[in-house]
């Protein structure tokens, strides 16, 4: 990773311990090189955007960081310790939650059920241990609290089926679930894609709220205005490598696009 822009713009980053770090990741698919020695650092309480043209390696990088793919070479560290994610569930257990563009929500279930999807809580006593009854009341109470903590005001009723929600509200449900269980890192893959201006603004505010709560966020996006609005640092991928890492203060959107496309050297 190029450190010049980082060091110039955020000198404190040198003394902080990254919560998530990738070192020289390599991933190939036959003769196709997905990642060519990519390094990345994510610090506590920051939004790190990852941008790049199609085929730059953004998706491959995220998949390696979250257990969906295994890197051929390199090392991933979480809180300074090496980790080896062989599947997404390993990343989940370590506190890394990913919200993909396709949104893994269950449309027929209500908001509360989606927040606890795959992590349903049982009722106390014999009803839960023997009869395996789900604690719907308790999950709905916790769901309301989680939405309130994140500043999500567009979802007043957690008993509404997700299929009745707008695109932005569905995205909010997916992000809220990630925030509820992603104790260390939340990864958002194109969270504002296919959303209108108002709903996009709501999602961007949600990203800011996560940062304000101290939860570091990795944001993958093609939308430069959105990236420059919420990102603290911007990791630019090009041709399977990290071209450089910049900040919205050190570079303009035009600069970022030029580096991303190869029109300008980092």
Automatic annotation (TrEMBL):
Keywords annotated in UniProt: ATP-binding, Nucleotide-binding
Keyword field contains Iron: no
Pfam family, one: ABC_tran
TM ranges: none
Keyword Transmembrane helix: no
One example GO MF annotation: ATP binding
Gene3D superfamilies: P-loop containing nucleotide triphosphate hydrolases
UniProt-listed InterPro entries: AAA+_ATPase, ABC_carbohydrate_import_ATPase, ABC_transporter-like_ATP-bd, ABC_transporter-like_CS, P-loop_NTPase
Descriptive protein name: Sugar ABC transporter ATP-binding protein
